[in-house]
Backbone:
């Protein structure tokens, strides 16, 4: 494209007015400057767009054919400019979010829902995370932000920034007919004779070891019969009355009425929820969701 958009705009206004004086006034330029712009546009195109004679100014056949395309070009240029500015402000684009254990991620998911409502042109893509590899999808650029679920100390790699959001206590998940289901709280040693479903050691070693250590501090080694990566799978066994599990307190139970969650006495072991992103990520969309999380969780825990 040889011509400038300002020359195109000058032609469209002149085609609408068919009068150099009125067109120059609308464009807020001098009439000689308007004449120069039209002459430059005609030279760039190699055609005559306007014909001037004693009767006034008229569009040539080339000008008549060129006018609707010129209007469309200006409209598309305006759309392109708006789109670029909105992308710069993070109002459009793509946000890939990773989340582990959605059943206990209610406040985070509610923040995402509010963000999507305010930014409908941001394509929101949500995918599940596996325990033990929650930062790998970030480092591999498969997601942009993650809700990390960590039992114990949060230790992200140096390339990842993690902002704590909230903590959930570890609770005992029991079948509804369990002998301890009606208790207001139980001690870990009350579960000494139970069969446990836990995280696999090979998939999430730190989580596995924390559970083992908790039980040993209570004076017993847990009888582990099932190692399942997904908390929902562990709760499925609990609901069937086959096992017990130690899980973060859910914001809403995926199996209401089938599983009872009882607080643990004598332990302060908690599950940390953290938003994590690549430290070098300059995406405006990521910056906006981080701002939204700051509003929802204004004070991160220490």
Residues:
């Amino acid at each position: 494209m040889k011509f400038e958009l300002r020359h195109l705009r000058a032609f469209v206004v002149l085609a609408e007015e068919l009068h150099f004086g009125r067109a120059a006034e609308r464009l807020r330029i001098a009439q000689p400057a308007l004449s120069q712009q039209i002459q430059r546009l005609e030279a760039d195109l190699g055609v005559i767009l306007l014909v001037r004679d004693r009767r006034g100014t008229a569009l040539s056949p080339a000008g008549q054919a060129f006018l609707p395309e010129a209007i469309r070009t200006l409209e598309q240029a305006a759309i392109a400019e708006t789109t670029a500015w909105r992308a710069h402000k993070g109002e459009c684009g793509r946000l890939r979010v990773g989340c582990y254990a959605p059943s206990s991620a209610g406040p985070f998911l509610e923040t995402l829902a509010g963000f999507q409502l305010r930014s409908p042109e941001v394509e929101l893509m949500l995918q599940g995370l596996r325990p033990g590899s929650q930062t790998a999808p970030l480092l591999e650029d498969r997601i942009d932000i993650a809700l990390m679920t960590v039992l114990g100390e949060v230790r992200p790699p140096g390339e990842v920034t993690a902002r704590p959001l909230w903590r959930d206590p570890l609770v005992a998940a029991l079948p509804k007919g369990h002998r301890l289901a009606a208790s207001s709280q139980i001690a870990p040693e009350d579960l000494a004779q139970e069969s446990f479903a836990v995280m696999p050691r090979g998939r999430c070693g730190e989580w596995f070891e924390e559970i083992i250590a908790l039980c040993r501090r209570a004076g017993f080694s847990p009888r582990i019969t099932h190692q399942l990566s997904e908390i929902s799978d562990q709760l499925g066994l609990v609901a069937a009355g086959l096992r017990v599990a130690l899980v973060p307190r859910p914001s809403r139970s995926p199996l209401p009425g089938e599983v009872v969650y009882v607080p643990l006495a004598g332990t302060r072991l908690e599950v940390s929820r953290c938003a994590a992103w690549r430290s070098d990520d300059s995406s405006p969309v990521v910056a906006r969701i981080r701002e939204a999380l700051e509003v929802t969780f204004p004070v991160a825990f220490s």
